[in-house]
Design brief:
Blueprint (H helix, E strand, L loop, with lengths): L2 H6 L10 E3 L4 E4 L4 E6 L2 E2 L7 E2 L6
Antiparallel strand pairs: 1-2, 2-3, 3-4, 3-5
Amino acid sequence: MDARLLEILVCPICKAPLDHRKAEQELVCKPCKLAYPIRDDIPVMLEDEARQLGADEA
């Protein structure tokens, strides 16, 4: 992921900053408890494609 892109991306729902989890290839929104997938170096910022975080992940 491009570092400049990571600086400007925010959660499409609440506009909070996202945490990049390289190993999982995800961008995580802690307030919404959602993880957006990164596929082929492209973040998929769709609510329908996001994964709900478990209690131990948030």
